[in-house]
Amino acid sequence: MSGVWVFKNGVVRLVENPGAEVMEGGGRQASAVRRKVLVYSATNEVIGNYGVLESKLRSLGWERYYDDPELLQFHKRSTVHLISLPKDFTKFKSMHMYDIVVKNKNSFEVRDM
């Protein structure tokens, strides 16, 4: 069972698609869905492309791997961590952002836009 539990008018119910709201007629209307963005904490800069991200990661000691042509991969010599990202930035999702945040504590954060 996945979704969000909603408490409304004294009733608790499971909403499977929290990004949609029920209208009075029973239909569904898409609500404004918040988009996630990766932010470089030191400068409060939103990462808008891989060029900017790569320069920030390099400054933190990450090296680029060129083994897989389908992925952008970064490795930090002092750790066992590997960051693997889709080659196309439009496929850069929140799971990739959180992976970067976990492996770079205090350097990046994910925010709702």
UniProtKB/TrEMBL annotation:
InterPro entries: FPF1. Belongs to the FPF1 family. This is Flowering-promoting factor 1. It comes from Stylosanthes scabra. The lineage of its organism: Eukaryota, Viridiplantae, Streptophyta, Embryophyta, Tracheophyta. The gene is FPF1_2.
